[in-house]
């Protein structure tokens, strides 16, 4: 199984790229969002990959983050959603947006992706809504394991600061990690995974920069009994 490729971008088309890895060229299909984040021809690129094996063809699909790759795997598990449809959804919404839409039951957001009809969008939400909390929490774990921010694609090279310039302060916790911590806290308080994920997704959508504590406070206000 090919899980990740790092090499030079040799060629790019509308929906795929050719990555030269030690003289071997790999054709990798990507979502529009991932394609837009790729560097120029001849530059170094790194993508997480998923290999689709069929009787008549082998296809590689590339993702800028492990979270995007995981959502692709889950979307492909839904009846009627193939690789093309999955990439269309991820290209339109991104990994975080896909998780938020599914957690909130917002099938209209899924339907906005190219080629996705209302029945397919509803099926995606219905079949994956209970899995959304786990994937949202997994996003933070994936980021810690990779040692990089999930919000930043693993494409291109990271430049060192110019001589004499002090390195910037450590970045604040990313949305994925904050959502993971908030989901864990709400689960410990006894909230069901579905309602916890929906509340966290709504709060994160209203305030993308919120840390875990802010997410928990706002989510608790949403989950509090009305009246």
Automatic annotation (TrEMBL):
Localization of this protein? Cytoplasm
A GO term from the CC aspect: cytoplasm
Cite the GO molecular-function annotations of the record. ATP binding; four-way junction DNA binding; four-way junction helicase activity
Q: Which UniProt keywords apply?
A: ATP-binding, Cytoplasm, DNA damage, DNA recombination, DNA repair, DNA-binding, Helicase, Hydrolase, Nucleotide-binding
Chain segments carrying region Domain III: 174-227
GO-annotated biological processes: DNA recombination; DNA repair
Pfam families to which the protein is assigned, alphabetical: HHH_5, RuvA_C, RuvA_N
* Region (Domain I) residue spans: 1-64
Query: Is Nucleotide-binding among the key words of this record?
Result: yes
Q: SMART domains from the xrefs?
A: HhH1
Chain's role:
The RuvA-RuvB-RuvC complex processes Holliday junction (HJ) DNA during genetic recombination and DNA repair, while the RuvA-RuvB complex plays an important role in the rescue of blocked DNA replication forks via replication fork reversal (RFR). RuvA specifically binds to HJ cruciform DNA, conferring on it an open structure. The RuvB hexamer acts as an ATP-dependent pump, pulling dsDNA into and through the RuvAB complex. HJ branch migration allows RuvC to scan DNA until it finds its consensus sequence, where it cleaves and resolves the cruciform DNA.
Cite the record's note on assembly.
Homotetramer. Forms an RuvA(8)-RuvB(12)-Holliday junction (HJ) complex. HJ DNA is sandwiched between 2 RuvA tetramers; dsDNA enters through RuvA and exits via RuvB. An RuvB hexamer assembles on each DNA strand where it exits the tetramer. Each RuvB hexamer is contacted by two RuvA subunits (via domain III) on 2 adjacent RuvB subunits; this complex drives branch migration. In the full resolvosome a probable DNA-RuvA(4)-RuvB(12)-RuvC(2) complex forms which resolves the HJ.
What does UniProt say about this protein's domains? Has three domains with a flexible linker between the domains II and III and assumes an 'L' shape. Domain III is highly mobile and contacts RuvB.
HAMAP family linked: DNA_HJ_migration_RuvA
Q: Which protein is depicted?
A: Holliday junction branch migration complex subunit RuvA
Encoding gene per record: ruvA
